[in-house]
Design goal:
The structure is a single chain. The chain is α+β, with helices and mostly antiparallel strands. It has two domains: 35 residues; 150 residues, no CATH class. Helices cover 14% and strands 25% of the residues. A five-stranded antiparallel sheet has the order 10-9-8-3-11, with no helix packed on it. It has a two-stranded antiparallel ribbon with strand order 1-2. A two-stranded antiparallel ribbon has the order 4-5. A hairpin with an 8-residue loop joins strand 1 and strand 2. The longest helix is centred in the first third of the chain and has 28 residues.
């Protein structure tokens, strides 16, 4: 075999390797057709030094755990009466204090004591500014949690762990229920006049 032919044969694997590497790089940059769109990916960051936590659900239901949210107007409510059997959509509103989103506490009950004895056992988590909430009914319990309103929404919630101070997001499919002050919500797609809890 001639010297030129040996060099040519030795160079073929190098050329093939370079082509495969280039194709892999292009594929990685463009993404795969099997990859889910960016908006369906889930990122979770739980906990900080203060014992607070955050769960961030992609671009469609983003809760920015670290940014300073803007105070928004009430773009979601309409004059339409709520339709269907519920749950009905609401958004967390007006929880930014001095540039910091303090969140809306989700409780086990709409009363002062929820029948538990551990510190903060009535808390099931926090919903942040502009987060979705799905309410099944509303109730005026007479307890205002040191605020000016005593009307509460009973909302679908992802956990029932007492003392939980992590930020979570409500969905229509959540298996548990919690309570939030209605004052810090705005209706989404209706006027907020949902049924009273029995």
């Amino acid at each position: 075999m001639s010297k030129n032919r040996k060099i040519l044969l030795a160079g073929i694997p190098i050329v093939i390797g370079a082509l495969i590497t280039a194709a892999a790089m292009i594929y990685a940059q463009r993404g795969s057709a099997d990859s889910p769109p960016e908006s369906t990916r889930t990122e979770a960051t739980i906990g900080d030094d203060a014992g607070n936590g955050c769960v961030n659900f992609g671009a469609q239901g983003t809760v920015n755990c670290h940014g300073v949210p803007e105070k928004k107007q009430l773009p979601y409510g309409t004059q339409e009466e709520p339709s269907g059997p519920g749950p009905w959509g609401f958004r967390v509103y007006d929880t930014v204090v001095d540039g910091t989103d303090v969140g809306l506490t989700v409780r086990r009950c709409p009363e002062r004591t929820c029948g538990c004895v551990d510190p903060h056992c009535e808390k099931l988590g926090i919903a942040r500014q502009d987060s979705p909430l799905f309410a099944v009914c509303q109730f005026d319990s007479g307890f205002n949690g040191n605020d000016t309103s005593s009307v509460w929404l009973k909302v679908k919630w992802p956990n029932n762990r007492g003392g939980d101070r992590t930020t979570q997001v409500s969905s229509e499919q959540d298996p548990y229920l919690g309570w939030v002050l209605k004052k810090y919500t705005t209706p989404a797609g209706h006027n907020g006049n949902i049924r009273t809890c029995a």
